[in-house]
From TrEMBL:
Stored SMART domains: CBS
Source organism (scientific name): Micromonospora sicca
Protein name, entry field: Ion transporter
Gene3D superfamilies per UniProt: CBS-domain (3.10.580.10)
Keywords: CBS domain, Repeat
Keyword GTP-binding: no
Domain CBS: 96-157, 160-217
Pfam families: CBS
Amino acid sequence: MRESGGPGLRRRPPGRPRREPGPVARTVARLVVRAADGATRLVTDLLGASPTAGRERISEAELRDLVAANTLLDPDERRIIDEVLVAGASLVREVMMPRTEVVFLSARLTIAEAERLVRAETHTRYPVVDGTHDDVVGFVHLRDVLLRPDRDPCTTVGELTREVKQLPGSKRVLAALTEMRREGHHLAVVVDEYGGTAGIVTCEDLIEELVGEIHDEYDNPPDPAHA
């Protein structure tokens, strides 16, 4: 079950691999993401200041104030943190995989039928629908389909479906990542303002938006073929 087409979304050019951030960018960005996720002690260690007592999270504005007030961060570290915060303000709908590119599995498929489909794909998680693409009832992991030798081949995909999170496309990337990590979700269905399925997003997509395009002086130069 796949649709094709779908303009208007910011996507990685076809054939272009994910670019890994360098060690400094990776470390600082990870700290910022964890700080936004409620790691008060980590913020204190990084910036030498404590957020308001009794609060588990700090806002983006408070984090920016802490960064501005800190005298130990060098210009590159400030730039990296600023880029993470700017990227975090992007909307989920700007970084999601649009529904036209998503592989959906019908809840009525048997495991044997689903296995034939997923072997031709490269994904690890598949949204499960009971009807149209707007009727997402959960998702299955690749191992649910392929790594259960004792499973009755007539078992349906619907019987193996796991709960899937829903996110509005208007939610900001950093807030979405924080929420997904806190709740233990790796995949979310992105819904539009009418409640229909707009696409899907993974934690990896959100993290890449935050740190995947940030580079520092220790990075390897990009491959000219993908520049």
